[in-house]
Here is the input.
Amino acid sequence: MKNFVTESAKKKKINLLDFDRKGLITFFVGIGEKSFRASQILKWIYQEDVTDFNQMTNLSKACRSYLIKNCAITPPEMLVEQVASDGTRKWAIEMSCGNRVETVFIPEEKRGTLCVSSQIGCALACTFCSTAKQGFNRNLSVSEIIGQLYVAQQRLGKETRITNVVIMGMGEPLLNFNNTVAAMNIMMDDFAYGLSKRRVTVSTSGIVPAMKRLNDVCDVSMAVSLHAANDELRDELVPVNQKYPLVELMDACREYSKTGPRKHITFEYVMLEGVNDSSDDARALIRLLKKVPSKINLIPFNPFSGSGYHCSSANTIAQFKDILYRAGIITTIRKTRGDDIDAACGQLIGKVKDKSRRHLKLQKMDQSHVA
Ligand code: SAH
Here is the structure.
């Protein structure tokens, strides 16, 4: 039987959500258009919420028909929405081939923070994180990262603005460097979301070379998942520490704090009972951070089945905070939000078709336990 699918229908259209301003300029100049088309299209997409090229009236007719024929504005699809009793919302967002990531919106009195994922799953094997247990499939594209903000803002409507973005969902953003940077550029572009660089935070487990590169290309706030003040323990909790040990990490943090938009680095420290929560641990942390302008965010551990860890008691966390505070370090305790819908830190699991060998190994181990 004759195949009636035309060539043009078969040809995949260029998704304009995949480009930041620089990318759009290259694209438009490449098709013989002026570079200011980049600002015009950004404004239509992200500020006017228009996806129909015919309605983009300040583009020339020729430009519009080129875009209609060759391009599309295709955000990822939002599949499921859950709303927690505290107003936190979690969305499962379809990426491709049955993979899903999770995006969380945390409303507060004066701001609304969106927690965005950067990868499908995660290749780092932090022992206390449930995303890690899902294995890893692939990096998200620019359109899939910025698309989370796009669909979330559409869903929330104009009255509820997303004022802050943290790249703290599934995945290690600095291992998906170029796409994460391009997406953050769109977040901060005045013709798109126009968020200030203080309101965009990238959270990393400490990929030292990428931290060094980041400040050259994109000026955003940085959070570092520390969780231990000595290499022995950090090697175990955050295995990437074996590659980039604390001396190197602290050096990179010091450098970043000199030029980053904030004068300090935020260190995240998950409170694990009997593991990293003693007063000696607090004092070791003070010594470690002596030369780095720091703010510490203590995160009560969010349990998940089979983790083998317990959260430190409220008392222990308060004491830990007090020791740091008395040493002059600004310390906050992260409020656990959205835990009744598993939207809290480390609870995002999405649906990951794991491709990493690490996961196969884990599966084998599990099977051998069952056998
Ligand atoms: N890969 C990045 C971003 C994702 S994790 C990073 O490591 O920073 C976001 C934050 O949640 C990190 O600080 C992470 O250590 C923390 N986290 C992970 N699992 C957690 C859990 N079960 N309870 C509390 N915090 C957790």
